[in-house]
Design goal:
Elements lengths: L11 H23 L2 H8 L4 E2 L7 H10 L5 E3 L1 H6 L2 E3 L6 E8 L16 E10 L3 E3 L2 H15 L3 H5 L1
Parallel strand pairs: 1-2
Antiparallel strand pairs: 2-5, 3-6, 4-5
């Protein structure tokens, strides 16, 4: 039986591009990590807000500004959809690091052996300048898909 979920091997050009992006993130992360905490707080605290009212850590604020010095209001792809905005085609996401403890999924037990250990997840964010208002048709399409996914209305399924 064929495994449909197996990844296809990357071309050399794609592998080089991925390696370049990882190296760039490592350099940015190191630059921000080497900065004293007091300097991070002094220079960047409160300069970047999340579209859902999120206040980012000093590290993530510095990390966002290092990637896009003009960013002011950022959010994830789905967060912008909820705000009735869509990311412009071809825009490049900015990365932030999110700590997540083991067993952070709902109903999952925390492993006592690794208690206190954390995963660090990368999340992609977009600045408000990288978004535009959703058209009426796109908003309607998004709301219909959201309703179908949550099972709110069977009437919408017939549309």
């Amino acid at each position: 039986m064929a495994n449909f979920y197996k990844r296809k091997p990357m071309s050399e050009a794609k592998a080089a591009e991925v390696a370049e992006k990882k190296e760039k993130l490592r350099k940015l992360s190191k630059m921000v990590s080497d900065m004293p905490e007091s300097e991070r707080l002094e220079r960047f605290r409160g300069n970047v807000l999340g579209c859902a009212g999120t206040v980012f850590s000093a590290f993530n604020t510095c990390f966002l500004i290092a990637q896009n010095p003009k960013c002011t209001l950022v959010g994830g792809f789905d967060q912008w959809k909820k705000q009735k905005r869509q990311v412009k085609k071809g825009e490049t996401a900015m990365a932030i690091w999110i700590p997540a403890p083991f067993g952070s999924k709902e109903g999952e037990a925390i492993d006592s052996e690794n208690k206190g250990m954390r995963f660090i997840l990368k999340n992609c964010m977009f600045d408000i300048s990288q978004t535009e208002e959703m058209t009426e048709a796109a908003t309607e399409h998004y709301m219909t898909r959201k309703a179908l996914a949550s099972g709110e209305s069977t009437a919408l399924a017939r549309v």
